[in-house]
Sequence to fold (147 residues):
Amino acid sequence: MTFRKIFPETNAYAQERALRDTLLRQPLGLTMDAESVDWADGTRHFGLFDETDTLVACVLASPGPNGSVRLRQMAVSSASQSSGFGRSLMQQAEAELRRSGVKSLSLHARDTAIGFYEKLGYSRVGDIYLELGIPHQLMGKELVRKE
Ligand SMILES: CC(C)(COP(=O)(O)OP(=O)(O)OC[C@H]1O[C@@H](n2cnc3c(N)ncnc32)[C@H](O)[C@@H]1OP(=O)(O)O)[C@@H](O)C(=O)NCCC(=O)NCCS
Fold:
């Protein structure tokens, strides 16, 4: 598997939109935001690709308050779930973000995925709340230990 950044107007980006639509939007009866929204605020896109250059997993990293970054749109293709690819993508994205000076991460976890993020060292912040009509949990992680 190869980890790399995804850029606009590429085949990789088209695969990313299809994966997010299938795994994250269609099941909720929602449509995808316009492509311009995906790149509006300097959001970085990361993907994990197999040997045929097929996208297996993706995650987006959007700028947050005080130099933090919010991870979102995390998805692993159904056929490749429960094989360690979600963990691999998250760890490589965290390393890339740490290298670029990011100190802390946050994310809005669907309640069905809280356990996954806890395994990766994310902590719950506050109570469960509704977003897109389904239960979510705010979670956070320090990339750089505070002195
Ligand atoms: C949730 C998701 C990203 C996890 O990715 P994955 O590749 O299946 O997870 P991995 O195989 O890397 O699992 C890493 C660890 O987390 C655990 N884990 C994975 N999914 C989990 C879940 N939903 N709940 C609890 N634990 C989970 C695994 O058992 C594994 O534990 P181990 O290291 O002790 O063996 C993936 O299943 C997915 O894309 N689901 C559909 C879309 C979605 O819910 N995205 C997240 C929205 S917030």
In short: The two ends are 35 Å apart (CA to CA). Strands lie at 2-6, 44-49, 55-63, 69-76, 104-110, 123-131, 134-142.
